[in-house]
Design a protein that fits this description.
Number of domains: 2
Number of helices: 13
Distance between the termini: 91 Å
CATH architecture of the largest domain: 3-Layer(aba) Sandwich
Shape: globular
Oligomer: single chain
Length: 428
């Protein structure tokens, strides 16, 4: 007589029937007390400030979810964060991901810089652990995995991203440049692009250049100037920029490079209509504002997932964040991780008990991830969180912020703006 393999779903149904009759078999595996999530960001090292903002945003969201009763479909199970620190080192990102998975993490979230995030992807795919990228823009992070699955090299895509890609950054940056210039009734002609020559900066600059070529606007990118990160001096690069006679300098920075670049632009007296970033950290964080002071005033930056302060809920979370952070602003980093945790909770609610199954749990989470449609998020966005065939959220959007009165505020697009932009910037 042939033996029939008992599937997990058949076993669960048989168990439920047996329990109803009073003779349920002993559980093969104890119910976990919490759902463990590996949350990994650069909380020390050169990107410590934005990394710490990510960690606090994630923890606040987890606290709110747990206080509201946890994951209802899992019987009120609470979220437990297993924290990691990449120190902005890709090898350490991979090791930290392996460590938290070995400690029982069933999902991963992180990790801010694209290099460390890409290193974590290999762990997620090898260990079959669903991974939500809350911050990291390089297009290949998800695209490479999607291609490997399509080509049959891997069976399942475990990596999804709730964050704008580098190419979408570029498209929106060019669009906002055009709209702001038109609204200001000025016509800059010459733009100098300057960027940090790491994986993030390379992808951001390529995306901006490609978007500029596709849009063919009235302004020209007259010079492209990279630097090694972290730089020890940027005087040569600024001299090159000055020689190009720019109307606008468009920097893609890291915090360390911004602290050299902006004072050097002032020191060399580079006369421009404005400094408008296509999208990068280093131009809005509390530590940067304290260090750079007037050098940051009137600087604009195209930032992803900035909090939508026109929502009352965002304002309430921002006030709690201010208290828990010692007075810091709820910004793009903290809100991206907060919304990332809300997305994970939504996924787990729909995956239900199957998320706890072994070995079928990861696939159940992935299937729930594909059906994501989260409307109640806190960031500026083009629509609800959804995931396309590549694993990216096409509704993830950006906002143009400007430093006005030593505070970052949204000035574009119009429907999210809380203050009018100032462009050209006043001459000193």
């Amino acid at each position: 007589m042939a033996l029939t393999r008992l599937s997990r779903r058949m076993f669960l149904n048989t168990t439920a029937t047996g329990a109803a009759l009073g003779f349920a078999p002993r559980a093969l595996r104890a119910q976990p007390a919490t759902f463990k999530l590996g949350v990994i960001h650069p909380v020390t090292g050169p990107l410590a400030e934005p990394g710490q903002a990510c960690r606090l945003g994630a923890q606040m969201a987890a606290d709110a979810i747990n206080a509201a009763g946890g994951i209802k479909s899992l019987g009120g199970m609470k979220l437990e964060l297993l924290l990691g620190d990449t120190q902005t080192k890709p090898d350490l990102g991979r090791l930290e991901a392996e460590r938290v998975v070995n400690q029982g993490a069933r999902m991963l979230m992180g990790s801010f810089d694209s290099g460390s995030t890409a290193a974590m992807v290999s762990v997620a795919q090898q260990k079959r652990v669903p991974f939500l990228v809350d911050i990291a823009a390089a297009d290949p992070i998800t695209a490479n995995v999607a291609k490997a699955v399509k080509d049959g090299q891997q069976k399942v895509q475990y990596v999804y991203r709730n964050f704008p890609t580098g190419s979408s950054f570029g498209r929106l940056a060019v669009r906002y440049f055009n709209e702001i210039f038109a609204a200001a009734r000025v016509a800059p002609r010459r733009v100098v692009l300057m960027y940090t020559n790491d994986l993030f900066g390379q992808n951001q600059s390529k995306g901006f250049i490609a978007a500029h070529k596709a849009a063919s606007p009235s302004w020209e990118i007259v010079e492209v100037i990279p630097w090694s990160e972290p730089p020890s001096d940027l005087s040569t690069e600024v001299s090159r920029a000055k020689a190009a006679k720019p109307d606008v300098i468009a920097p893609i920075t890291r915090p360390a490079s911004a602290q050299l670049l902006l004072p050097e632009i002032r020191k060399q007296r580079v006369e421009v209509m404005g400094i408008v970033g296509p999208g990068s950290p280093g131009l809005y964080e509390a530590g940067q504002l304290a260090a750079l002071k007037d050098d940051l005033e009137y600087v604009m930056d195209n930032v992803p997932s900035w909090p939508n302060f026109k929502k009352a809920r965002t304002q309430a979370v921002a006030e709690e964040y201010r208290k828990r952070s010692g007075g810091k602003t709820f910004d793009t980093n903290s809100v991206a991780s907060y919304d990332g945790m809300l997305t994970i909770a939504d996924v787990l609610e729909r995956a239900g008990r199957e998320a706890l199954a072994d070995p079928d749990g990861p696939e159940a989470i992935v299937e729930a991830m594909k059906k994501t449609n989260v409307k109640d998020i806190l960031a500026v966005a083009a629509g609800p969180v959804v995931f396309n065939e590549i694993g990216d959220n096409p509704n993830a959007s950006t906002a143009m912020i400007q430093i006005l009165g030593q505070k970052p505020v949204v000035v574009w697009p119009r429907d999210a703006a809380v203050q009018k932009f100032v462009f050209p910037r006043p001459k000193v």
